[in-house]
C-alpha cells in the first residue's frame, strides 16, 4: 500500500494534453526529420511496460518530441529521466513537463548520435558486466532516419562496453519501422534475416514486443512500427572485435541470394582470393553452398574466428576492402598503369549506403 501511495505521488498533475501542447506551441512533424508523433497515452504506456519496472529507475529518452512517451515514463515512477532532443521547438513543452515533475526530468538540447551518455548519469548506478543490469534504461520513439545508424552505434558500444554501456548491461526499448524490427529479430532461414539480425543477436537478446499500426501516429507514416527490446548478453556469441565481425557479416550478406562463399571471397585480394577463401571455409567448417540467411550465429562465429586467424598471419588483410581494389583498378585502367598487389593497402571505404542492414 505504501509503495502504491509513493507511485501515485510521482504521477504527473493535470496538464494540457499532448495534442493541446502541439496546438499551443504550433508544432508540426517535420518530414525531413522523419518525425511522427504518438499521442495515444495507452500506446505510450504499453511501450514503457516493455522496459519492465521503472520504479526508481534512471532513464534516457531519445527524441521525446512533444512528450507523449515522456509522460508515460514519468508516470511509471522513475527517479531520473534525461531526455535528449535535437529540435528546439519541443523544448518549451518539455520544460512544462519538467516543472510538473520537479527534480525528475532533465532536458538536453543535443543530437543523440553525438551525445556522451556515459557522462549523463551518476557513476554509482553502475553494475559489473557479469552481474544483473543496472537500473538504467534507454527508451525512444526513434525517427526513422536515425534508427538504424543509432542502433549500430549502440551495438558497437555494447561490444566495447562504452557509451550507455559503461554503466553495465543497460537495456533498450526502441521503435523502428516494422521491416527493420523484423530484421533485428529474424531467425535463421527467415527471408528477413540480414546483417542487422546477426549484429544485434550476437550481442543481445532481442525481442520484437508488438507492432503499432501507422494510423496511430500523426502524421500517419506509410509503414507500421515495431517496438523492440534489447538486453545485452553477459558474453557475446562472437568473441572478436566489433569491426572485424561487422566486416565479415557485411561481406557475406552483400550476396544474400548467392552461396555464402561468394561474399567470403571479397574479404581477400584478387591475387590470393581462391586459396584464402578455401582455407577460411575449411577452417570454419562451414558449407560454402549455404545462403547467408541460412547461416547460424555459431557459423558466423566460426567464420569470424577463421578470418581473424588469417589476419594474424597477414595483418594487411584487415584493412583490405575489395571496393577500394576495384576503384584502384579503374583508376589504373584510366592511366594505363599496373595496379600492383593490394594486401596491406589501407582503405577507409565504408559499406555501400545502398546495402540495407
TrEMBL record:
Residue ranges annotated for the Ribosomal RNA adenine methylase transferase N-terminal domain, each copy included: 43-234
Domain of life assignment: Eukaryota
Binding site for S-adenosyl-L-methionine: 36, 38, 63, 85, 111, 141
Keywords: DNA-binding, Methyltransferase, Mitochondrion, RNA-binding, rRNA processing, S-adenosyl-L-methionine, Transcription, Transcription regulation, Transferase, Transit peptide
UniProt EC number: 2.1.1.-
Subcellular location: Mitochondrion
One BP term from GO: transcription initiation at mitochondrial promoter
PROSITE patterns: SAM_RNA_A_N6_MT
Region entry Disordered, spans: 337-357
Pfam family, one: RrnaAD
GO cellular component: mitochondrial matrix
MF (Gene Ontology): DNA binding; mitochondrial transcription factor activity; RNA binding; rRNA (adenine-N6,N6-)-dimethyltransferase activity; S-adenosyl-L-methionine binding
PANTHER family linked to this entry: DIMETHYLADENOSINE TRANSFERASE, DIMETHYLADENOSINE TRANSFERASE 1, MITOCHONDRIAL
Annotated NCBIfam families: ksgA (TIGR00755)
Name of the protein this chain belongs to: rRNA adenine N(6)-methyltransferase
Species this protein is from: Mola mola
Amino acid at each position: 500500500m505504501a509503495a502504491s501511495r509513493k507511485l501515485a505521488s510521482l504521477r504527473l498533475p493535470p496538464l494540457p494534453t499532448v495534442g493541446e501542447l502541439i496546438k499551443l506551441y504550433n508544432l508540426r512533424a517535420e518530414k525531413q526529420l522523419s518525425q511522427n508523433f504518438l499521442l495515444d497515452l495507452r500506446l505510450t504506456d504499453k511501450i514503457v511496460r516493455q522496459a519492465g519496472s521503472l520504479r526508481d529507475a534512471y532513464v534516457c529518452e531519445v527524441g521525446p518530441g512533444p512528450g507523449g512517451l515522456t509522460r508515460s515514463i514519468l508516470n511509471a515512477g522513475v527517479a531520473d529521466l534525461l531526455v535528449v532532443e535535437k529540435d528546439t521547438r519541443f523544448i518549451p513543452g518539455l520544460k512544462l513537463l519538467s516543472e510538473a515533475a520537479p527534480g525528475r526530468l532533465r532536458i538536453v538540447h543535443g543530437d543523440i548520435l553525438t551525445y556522451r551518455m556515459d557522462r549523463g548519469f551518476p557513476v554509482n548506478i553502475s553494475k559489473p558486466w557479469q552481474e544483473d543490469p543496472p537500473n538504467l534504461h534507454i527508451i525512444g520513439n526513434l525517427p526513422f532516419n536515425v534508427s538504424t545508424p543509432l542502433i549500430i552505434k549502440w551495438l558497437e558500444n555494447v561490444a566495447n562496453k562504452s557509451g550507455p554501456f559503461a554503466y553495465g548491461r543497460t537495456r533498450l526499448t526502441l521503435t523502428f519501422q516494422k521491416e527493420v524490427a523484423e530484421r533485428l529479430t529474424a531467425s535463421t532461414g527467415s527471408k528477413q534475416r540480414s546483417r542487422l539480425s546477426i549484429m544485434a543477436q550476437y550481442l543481445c537478446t532481442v525481442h520484437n514486443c508488438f507492432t503499432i499500426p501507422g494510423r496511430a501516429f500523426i502524421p500517419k507514416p506509410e509503414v507500421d512500427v515495431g517496438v523492440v527490446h534489447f538486453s545485452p548478453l553477459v558474453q557475446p556469441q562472437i568473441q572478436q572485435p566489433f569491426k572485424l565481425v561487422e566486416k565479415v557479416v557485411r561481406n557475406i550478406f552483400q550476396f544474400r541470394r548467392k552461396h555464402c562463399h561468394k561474399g567470403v571471397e571479397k574479404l581477400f585480394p584478387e591475387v590470393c582470393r581462391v586459396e584464402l577463401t578455401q582455407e577460411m571455409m575449411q577452417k570454419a567448417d562451414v558449407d560454402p553452398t549455404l545462403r547467408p540467411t541460412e547461416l547460424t550465429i555459431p557459423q558466423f562465429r566460426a567464420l569470424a574466428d577463421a578470418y581473424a586467424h588469417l589476419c594474424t598471419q597477414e595483418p594487411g588483410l584487415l584493412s583490405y576492402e575489395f571496393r577500394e581494389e576495384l576503384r584502384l583498378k579503374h583508376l589504373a585502367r584510366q592511366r594505363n598503369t599496373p595496379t600492383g598487389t593490394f594486401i596491406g593497402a589501407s582503405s577507409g571505404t565504408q559499406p555501400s549506403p545502398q546495402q540495407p542492414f
